Amino acid sequence: MEPNKGLVSALFLFFLLHETIASPTPKPHIKPRPPPHHPCRHLTFYFHDIIFNGKNSKNATAAIVGSPPWGNRTILAGQSHFGNLVVFDDPITLDNNLHSAPVGRAQGFYIYDRKDIFTAWLGFSFVFNSTQHRGSINFAGADPLMNKTRDISVIGGTGDFFMTRGVATLETDAFEGEVYFRLRVDIKLYECW
Amino acid sequence: MEPNKGLVSALFLFFLLHETIASPTPKPHIKPRPPPHHPCRHLTFYFHDIIFNGKNSKNATAAIVGSPPWGNRTILAGQSHFGNLVVFDDPITLDNNLHSAPVGRAQGFYIYDRKDIFTAWLGFSFVFNSTQHRGSINFAGADPLMNKTRDISVIGGTGDFFMTRGVATLETDAFEGEVYFRLRVDIKLYECW
Amino acid sequence: MEPNKGLVSALFLFFLLHETIASPTPKPHIKPRPPPHHPCRHLTFYFHDIIFNGKNSKNATAAIVGSPPWGNRTILAGQSHFGNLVVFDDPITLDNNLHSAPVGRAQGFYIYDRKDIFTAWLGFSFVFNSTQHRGSINFAGADPLMNKTRDISVIGGTGDFFMTRGVATLETDAFEGEVYFRLRVDIKLYECW
Q1: Interchain pair B68, C72: CB under 8 A
Q2: Span B96-119, pLDDT tens digits
Q3: Mapping DSSP to helix (H, G, I), strand (E, B) and coil, where does residue A65 land?
């Protein structure tokens, strides 16, 4: 009898556990909150934006393609550039040197969305096609430019970055007038497949 | 022998369960479907959009910055505003009163994308920097404006809303002509970290 | 005593397993990597884009609404259309026939973002309201048009596609001049709720 009893306990335990593990639980998807979160992947890059100003056609990597009624598409508008839509295809480098060999392209747009201070909304991708990285990382979010660091969302990825999600911290590393600026991007991925 | 037998059952059970739990399963990521899903976080806000019309420069929180060939950037175009790109920086309030103290800013754009009825595509963020909320929630999706309620995606978040995902239900709460409209946003987050 | 011993082992095992399963683990969210990943849902559609060119007002499903300083909004600009923002409301069909009964609408925008080759950044939704599908799928990502296939991200969904995520592979199935093009979209969803 004794071993049977042990077996019964074990079987009871099995069903108990099985229930706990396998049944569709009506609980919300609250993920564990380890303090703090550790990224499963961490990457740092720089990208370099040169806005077309009517004279720099050869070097420009970005252009104003939308403007408010009071603006035009050659000079960023007054009122904190509110309403300027800028499209870009910027080189990505591993260090802060514009002339380093690019490891990919940052492609997408930003749109200045506030009249009293500089803020923008960003939608763009990092597109890689090198020996080191192949695939893309997609970003979206608000960029309050005057803050030293700003967090946006990594909303997806493809190739080497298949299905990834995370947070990217932007930092304006340098700028020259209203034509050139360089961003440092610290990418922390928290969902890796 | 008896206790050993119990132990053997238990160990067998352990490996059985271990296999079930820990092995990389080649199954697709079908999440449990508790009927219905319960959000892990639920928030309701209002935001207020005042489109620049050439006369309301002081109060306007939005401006037309793109238009179809047959339109301009001061008056929303015919054919259901098809082709108008609007950028906004709208106050977020807890109730439906435009003059309540804002708790954040709704920043981003919408673009009217249909000729025969009013529909738009939205990309925007809720940006919070108050004692109650700090961080951002990022949204994207189609907004068939003529429907009483419309669902868009919460595609990510930062700060207090780190890595969140969910669904936001939009409802046009009020509007005045083609200048002012107020949206009620019911944010249901299903992934909370 | 014997059965007790078995029970003790079993209980010990329970707590051991319980600890393993339920405790908040400080490990990063590295999801299992079954080689290869299998989608939990797989859908294929076609959509049809007819760009307004000043003469096709009746049939056009898309229009240029932003352009670089050197362009206009009736003809796609030189330099690989760099800076052209196009908004669309395209019919979705199950086969490659423009005249098949549409099963939904592809709504959103693309913006050409490179001067030397054709590339664009896409933000759009598939909106379904039929007996077969109800809800929306939201997409974002870079589209290097000259590649035979291009992967973008499925960043969320609503209705029948509640909370989904995945990867969509785009392929230019046909085009006529710079007015009509047809895309084949292979949607692989890896997170299904």
Answers
A1: no
A2: 999 999 999 999 999 999 888 899
A3: strand
What is the three-class DSSP state of B17?
helix
| DSSP assignment letter at A87 | E
| C14-35 pLDDT tens trace | 444 443 444 444 445 555 545 5
Interface check for A53 against chain C (CB to CB < 8 A): the answer is no
Read off the pTM: 0.83
Interatomic CA distance for residues B100 and B96, integer angstroms: 8
Do the Cβ atoms of C141 and A157 come closer than 8 Å?
no
Pick the CATH number of A44-191 from 3.40.190.10, 3.40.50.300, 2.60.120.10, 2.40.480.10: 2.40.480.10
Which chain B residues are Cβ-neighbours of C155 within 8 angstroms?
A: 140, 153, 155
| Dihedral angle, C-alpha B18, B19, B20, B25, nearest 10 ° | 130
Report the DSSP beta bridge partners of residue A182.
A48, A174
Q: What SS3 class is residue C15?
A: helix
Q: What backbone torsions phi and psi does residue C17 show, to the nearest 5 degrees? A: -65, -45
Q: Does A140 touch chain B (CB under 8 A)?
A: yes
Partner B contacted by C78 (CB < 8 A): no
Q: Which residues of C touch A66 (CB under 8 A)?
A: 66, 85
Q: Break chain B into its structural domains and give their ranges.
A: 44-191
How many Å lie between the alpha carbon of B180 and the closest alpha carbon of chain C? 23
Mind telling me how many Å the CA of B114 is from chain C's nearest CA?
6
